[in-house]
Amino acid sequence: MTDDRLPLAELMAKTGDGDFLRTIAENVLQIIMEADVDGLVGAGRHERSGDRTTWRNGYRDRSLDTRLGTLNLKIPKLRTGAYFPGFLEPRKTVEKALVAVIQEAWIAGVSTRRVDELVQAMGMTGISKSSVSKLCKDIDERVHAFLKRPLAGDWPYLWLDATYLKVREGGRIVSVAAIIAVAVNTEGKREIVGLHIGPSEAEPFWSSFLKDLVRRGLTGVKLVISDAHEGLKAAITRVMGATWQRCRVHFMRNALAYVPKGQNTVVAAAIRQVFLQPDHAAATQVWRQVADQLRARWPKLGACMDDAEHDVLAYMTFPEQHRVKLHSTNPLERLNKEVKRRADVVGIFPNEDSIIRLVGAVLLEQNDEYQLQHRYMQIEGMAALATPMIEEAQPLQITPKAA
């Protein structure tokens, strides 16, 4: 067996008083890990033994936060099998999912050079299929329970956004959409309510996803906010019976595509005047004025604004306290960035199950954070949710009589 212990005097000579205890702790934990690995290998470092079952294969760094400060440890790696010290906490669910996805790609022989290098850096060379299966089973059970959980109560607002990922399918690499659904209930609380994988443009895809949400208990939806995906609007009307809000940010990008780049700033400023109006009636009036002004120079832009008017301004008929979060899918941006950050490490997923495993784990942890936060929307606006639409409709009927 190896003996990595240093005499107390030597340790004191190498470190200052402030770092002495931390260095002692690091060395003690390192000795424990070395002893554990000696037992797994069946021999000490550089020791010849007929009882040897495998060989050491370097180290991987891991930090441990303690009262003494952050300890920098080096976890021994094995050429076959794996070792993880019992005194360290296992990785978070997302990290486990990421490891599982990479391991699947490695075992299936479909990993890219980038994934290959990452696997070796993480010390997972030669891990067994049984270990992968056990790890995946634990993650899948938690993720599926989260994604299929029943939904209680009414959910007035629903956001849908797509993140595109690459996956191997039938020997080809194809792009699929991972649709994430986030909803707010009548208590003003935000939750992640669904994940679906498929082609985002197909109406059957959207209908299937929305029907699944309804079966799980997503009721009382009054407004669905998303980008302009083909087939989505019809699916929302048929399945949800709700109003559709076209993402204002995505609309602006589409509209400015009809304008020379040198004119983008001026045109964008003109259109934004619409969104500064206090109510739906005023916003509609300014929208038509701006559309007519721009139509003279850019007919296609005018036609685009005509087609999008009702969908882009739908949020203006809802409570004023909520409008700042209803006009676009921006509330999902931070979540999508975290999903992409994790997915970019994998690059190409071996199958759709691995996408659900990794993305679902990210959503599970983010949803836990949502539950610890304050209300996402003011509850006063929820109480008056239907009132603004009635009040704004009345002036159109009363004004002619008063005149």
TrEMBL record:
GO MF term list: DNA binding; transposase activity
InterPro entries in UniProt: Transposase_mutator
Key word DNA-binding present: yes
A Pfam cross-reference name: Transposase_mut
Keyword terms of this UniProt record: DNA recombination, DNA-binding, Transposable element, Transposition
GO biological process: DNA transposition
Transmembrane segments: none
The protein's role, per its UniProt record: Required for the transposition of the insertion element.
PANTHER family from the UniProt entry: TRANSPOSASE FOR INSERTION SEQUENCE ELEMENT IS1081
Family: Belongs to the transposase mutator family.
Protein name from the UniProt record: Mutator family transposase
